[in-house]
Write a structure and sequence with these properties.
Length: about 70
């Protein structure tokens, strides 16, 4: 859905949906979803938002890895 919003130049709707997904503890966006948001921000010239999304991606990835290591 986020990809479709971005393709239709509906970035505010994509942001809203993305924020909803990120707020859920049981579900996290996958890497392509983060990339889609980053690309949309860059296309709109919103580099600071793209950087913020990169940082969110890194945080989510590190959290995922840390949880996997603790389970082992």
């Amino acid at each position: 859905m986020i990809t479709r919003f971005c393709e239709q130049d509906l970035l505010s709707e994509a942001e809203h949906f993305f924020a909803e997904i990120c707020s859920k503890k049981s579900f996290r966006p996958d890497v392509p979803t983060y990339r889609t948001m980053m690309d949309a921000y860059v296309k709109k010239g919103r580099v600071s938002d793209a950087v913020k999304t990169v940082n969110q991606t890194l945080d989510a990835s590190l959290t995922y890895i840390a949880k996997k290591v603790l389970v082992m």
